Amino acid sequence: MSHALAHWWSDRGIEIIPNVRFSTPDSYEFAFDGIEHNSTVAIGTHGCMKRYEDKKYFMDGFHKMLEVLQPKNIIIYGTVPQEIAAAAKDAGAHIHAFPSQCAIAHKKKKVR
Question: What angle do CA 71, 76, 79 make, to 5 degrees?
Answer without folding.
Answer: 135
